């Protein structure tokens, strides 16, 4: 009886070993495919980064080498389809080719969605890589804005969601501290302007001339902010004061994100 029981168990054990071996094989294959997928994505990221660098120069801007990440998994199916869910691009130290007084963006994060790029374009570098939508976010430091206004002792920051200013000013022989907030105006072409219409100073003399001088100071620091030419045809849509600086949001549609060969 014991011998018969042992014979019945052996086929089951062999079958279980076969299943385990098959499962292990599938896991190994899946791992190899995942590695191949990531390797292919890395190659594409380097290719796109190089093309983006050329496009940035072509549009009259400068930046550190682009950092590119291709989103979506698996990557290889996106290659075959010629359409990518998302390509994230980070540009650091974005400046105009002509420096002048242009305010630099320490970083510009670009999110390109529904990107069309054929396999031949990626392989040859010829043709366009086109994004259906592109959104960009960058931050202008308050220090760089204050340097633009060029007033000794002037500081900028965020207060209750507004751009706030503090500055020492001489009015009728008195050294006063001026405080107030600015309105941020975005023009039709995405230009940014600061308007300091709401300033006051504790101890301001009641003489009408004192108020006139304060208003003159407000006008002198109400300026256009010379941003560098943004790449990818980005147009500024929103500017919000945040604790770390002015956050600039820009967007564009149907944009080539490479320089077509």
Task: Describe the protein.
There is one protein chain. With 261 residues, this protein is an alpha+beta fold. The protein has one domain. Strands 1, 2, 3, 4, 5, 11 and 12 form a seven-stranded antiparallel β-sheet that branches. The protein has a five-stranded antiparallel β-sheet with strand order 6-7-8-9-10. The mean pLDDT is 80.
Helices and strands, with pairings:
Blueprint: H1 2-58, E1 61-62, E2 67-70, H2 75-81, E3 83-96, E4 105-116, H3 119-124, E5 130-140, H4 142-149, E6 155-159, E7 162-171, E8 174-186, E9 192-201, H5 208-220, E10 224-225, E11 235-242, E12 245-256
Antiparallel strand pairs: 1-3, 2-3, 3-4, 4-5, 5-12, 6-7, 7-8, 8-9, 9-10, 11-12
Protein name: DUF2993 domain-containing protein
InterPro entries: DUF2993 (IPR021373)
Pfam families: LmeA
């Amino acid at each position: 009886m014991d011998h018969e029981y042992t014979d019945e168990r052996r086929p089951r054990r062999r079958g279980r070993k076969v299943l385990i071996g098959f499962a292990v094989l599938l896991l190994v294959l899946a791992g190899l495919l995942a590695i191949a997928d990531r390797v292919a994505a890395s190659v594409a990221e380097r290719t796109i980064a190089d093309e983006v660098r050329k496009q940035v120069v072509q549009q009259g801007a400068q930046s550190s080498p682009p950092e590119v990440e291709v989103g979506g998994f698996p990557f290889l199916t996106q290659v075959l389809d010629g359409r990518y869910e998302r390509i994230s691009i980070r540009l650091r130290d974005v400046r105009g080719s002509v420096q002048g007084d242009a305010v630099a963006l320490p970083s510009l994060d670009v999110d390109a969605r529904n990107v069309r790029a054929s396999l031949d374009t990626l392989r040859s570098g010829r043709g366009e890589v086109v994004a259906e939508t592109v959104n960009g976010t960058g931050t202008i430091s308050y220090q760089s804005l204050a340097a633009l206004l060029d007033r000794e002792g002037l500081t900028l920051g965020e207060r209750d969601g507004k751009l706030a200013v503090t500055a020492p000013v001489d009015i009728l022989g008195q050294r006063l501290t001026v405080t107030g907030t600015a309105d941020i105006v975005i023009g039709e072409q995405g230009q940014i302007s600061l308007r300091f219409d709401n300033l006051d100073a504790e101890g301001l003399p009641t003489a009408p001339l004192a108020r006139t001088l304060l208003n003159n100071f407000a006008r002198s620091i109400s300026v256009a902010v010379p941003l560098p030419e943004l790449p990818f045809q980005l147009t500024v849509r929103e500017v919000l004061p945040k604790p770390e600086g002015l956050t600039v949001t820009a967007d564009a549609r149907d944009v080539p994100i490479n320089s077509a060969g």
